[in-house]
Specification:
6-stranded mixed sheet; 643 residues; alpha/beta; 7-stranded mixed barrel; binds iron/sulfur cluster; single chain; 22 helices; Aconitase, domain 3; binds alpha-methylisocitric acid; Aconitase, domain 4; 3 domains
């Protein structure tokens, strides 16, 4: 049978289950990555598994999120991760070396390999033909220990690209168009596979922008073929040896087809507060802006930065506007320094930031009150910028730079002719900020360095005979992990301390929730559709678990968050009749009799609202493996039991 590219790579990695759409398969994982905001927890979990050395082909730990170091906590985490890496066979990308996804693409990614990362934008690797998937820290820990990573065998959506982008229209506009058409839930349970004549007109960094922001579709991942363009990129990175040509078989059959004529696209923006709220510049009209931020794992490549420098050359940032620029990696920053583009940016008045996530995760550069901020990032959820009423628009670097000069949202096509921007024949390669692990003979002598803020992860309880608990919180549709477990400069330093970080759980929705949940002892959360979209942070499951949440009942879940709930031993259920969502209220007591037995018997779980006396049906869309994990009280307990 003719196969899609994604199917070919998936099938070559299946170690458990069958490639049947909708059923669960276990995949062999070739590479893993972590970043520091999820990494400490992931390595604590890895340590708990007692595996001396990682069993993957390559595992890399990056320090890129918590680099503000406003206090000892972040630096302690960096030191802990660095020492764990040395001991357990993991490469360590030091702070300053760049954003995990950008550096991984430059230095480690390889076509045809599988990669999981404890960060939802891991699909960036799809830009060079990898199956790269975002996962919770616990799943990454298991993969580092040689265990399989489980996904639902996905449907494949084929996005067929034809034509060529017009001058000043960007790869960002391609993914914004896909988001406009499919929405933030359109990709759930699917892999987005790009093909068609238009593919060869896009460079690797442009492809990576598209696969990166495919995370906002809720997709399992996105992938481009590996072709001559991939080969030249890898060659310029001194890594031609990992190149293999890869594409779908002729006549591959897809579950859905989306056609996009690149030549028909125009510059666009995702308006507040959702990445799928996409409008063209013309539709948005005259919009006065306060801030422009360029960078993040979506748009911080050398190519992006060269375009920005070209636009800023000889000009000055508009008086009322603050422009910050964070090049994605040390390689990018260094090349900009050497070719003079950095000086052009500084001359124009840009505020140059270190190569890290920075403003994208609310670590500095929050806009002014109700400030309008144009960002080249991938998420514009409410409050994520650090300013509650900040209005964030997601745009291309070209549009961002043009607007920084005029003070208004500006269509970059007004800039006139566009020169050809090309990937260099050779990137500047210096891996001196990537520390290799010590040899096996020396690993016993490495001491793991911990700090006072690094607390062990809380352990979950096996499923009890009956769950009877109050609804401590009822929320609406599209609740993001930034609602459940906010990030930002104040909260991110607490990522290694679940008891402390839990005090901010659901702070965006209801500041009283943590105290209420703790006082109740056990509780239930009710949500609408696409609950838990966004980040892969398992803290959005670990904090509720610590606060005593036993079950979350929603209209539907986002993929990674649902897996994280299962791993944390929290029962994820969906309403069979969505009308039952309206029939429950915060404060009602719900009872689930013999949950483990109900799960064993099938996928339907009966819940009784003891406050109203009404019973309703819910669905547990779980594999047998996931049911066993829940019964055992989370993935760590389950893995311990199995060994
Ligand atoms: C994000 O973009 O939200 C993050 C911060 O990179 C997260 C990971 C985290 O919360 O640490 C993600 O996307 O998974
Ligand atoms: Fe970092 Fe932002 Fe990318 Fe997340 S989306 S990895 S915070 S740059």
């Amino acid at each position: 049978m003719a196969l899609a590219l994604a199917e070919k790579i998936l099938n070559a990695h299946i170690v458990d289950g069958k490639p049947e759409k909708g059923s669960e398969v276990g995949l062999k994982i070739d590479q893993t990555l972590t970043q520091d905001a999820t990494g400490t927890m992931a390595y604590l979990e890895f340590e708990a598994m007692g595996v001396p050395r990682v069993k993957t082909e390559r595992s890399v730990a990056y320090i890129d999120h918590n680099t503000l170091q406003n206090g000892f906590e972040n630096a302690d985490d960096h030191r802990f991760i660095g020492s764990v890496c040395k001991k357990h066979g993991i490469y360590f990308s030091r702070p300053g070396n760049g954003i995990c996804h950008q550096v991984h693409l430059e230095r480690f990614g390889a076509p045809g390999k599988t990669l999981i990362g404890s960060d939802s934008h891991t699909p960036t690797g799809g830009g060079i033909g990898m199956i790269a998937i975002g996962a919770g820290g616990m799943d990454v820990a298991v993969a580092m220990g040689g265990g399989a990573y489980y996904i639902t065998y996905p449907q494949i959506v084929n996005v067929r690209l034809t034509g060529k982008l017009q001058p000043w229209v960007a790869a960002k506009d391609v993914i914004l168009e896909v988001l406009k058409r499919l929405s933030v839930k359109g990709g759930v349970g699917k892999i987005i596979e790009y093909s068609g004549d238009g593919v060869k007109t896009l460079s690797v960094p442009e492809r990576a922008t598209i696969t990166n922001m495919g995370a906002e579709l809720g997709a399992t991942t996105s992938i481009f073929p590996s072709d001559e363009v991939t080969k030249s990129f890898l060659k310029a990175q001194g890594r031609e040896s990992v190149y293999v040509p890869l594409s779908a078989d002729d006549g591959a059959v897809y579950d859905e087809v989306v056609e996009i004529d690149l030549g028909a696209l125009v510059p666009m923006a995702a308006c507040p507060h959702s990445p799928d709220n996409v409008k063209t510049c013309e539709e948005i009209g005259k919009l006065k802006i306060d801030q422009v931020c360029i960078g993040s794992c979506t748009n911080s490549s050398l190519l992006d930065m060269l375009k920005v420098a070209y636009i800023l050359k000889g000009k000055t940032v508009y008086p009322d506007v603050s422009l910050s620029i964070a090049p994605g990696s040390k390689q990018v920053l260094n090349m900009l320094a050497e070719n003079g583009a950095l000086s052009v940016m500084i001359d124009a008045g840009a505020r140059i930031l270190e190569s890290a996530c920075g403003p994208c995760i609310g670590m500095g550069q929050s806009p002014n009150s109700a400030g309008i901020s144009l960002r080249t990032f991938n998420r514009n959820f409410e409050g994520r910028s650090g300013t509650k009423d900040g209005q964030v628009y997601l745009v291309s670097p070209e549009l961002a730079a043009a607007s920084a000069l005029t003070g208004y949202l500006t269509d970059p096509r007004t800039l006139g002719d566009m020169p050809d921007f090309e990937i260099p024949k050779e990137f500047k390669i210096n891996d001196n900020m990537i520390v290799p692990p010590v040899s096996e003979s020396k690993m016993d002598s490495v001491e793991v360095l911990r700090g006072p803020n690094i607390k062990p992860f809380p352990s979950a309880q096996p499923l009890s005979d009956v769950i009877s608990a109050q609804i401590a919180l009822k929320v609406g549709d599209n609740i993001t992990t930034d609602h459940i477990m906010p990030a930002g400069a104040k909260i991110l330093p607490l990522r290694s301390n679940i008891p402390k970080i839990s005090k901010f759980c659901f702070a965006v929705c209801d500041e009283a929730f943590p105290d209420r949940a703790l006082a109740l002892g056990k509780s239930i959360v009710v949500g609408g559709s696409n609950y838990g979209q966004g980040s892969s942070r398992e803290h959005a499951a670990l904090a509720p678990m610590y606060l005593g949440v036993k079950a979350v009942i929603t209209k539907s879940f986002a993929r990674i968050h649902m897996a994280n709930l299962v791993n944390a031993g929290i029962l994820p259920l969906t309403f069979v009749n969505e009308a039952d969502y309206d029939a429950v209220s915060q404060g009602d007591t719900l009872t689930i009799e013999a949950p483990a037995k109900q799960l064993e018997a099938g996928d339907e779980v009966t819940v009784t609202n003891t406050t109203t006396g009404k019973a309703f049906k819910t669905k547990a869309s779980l594999s047998d493996r996931q049911k066993a994990i829940l019964t055992a009280g989370g993935l760590i307990n389950y893995t311990g039991k199995k060994n």
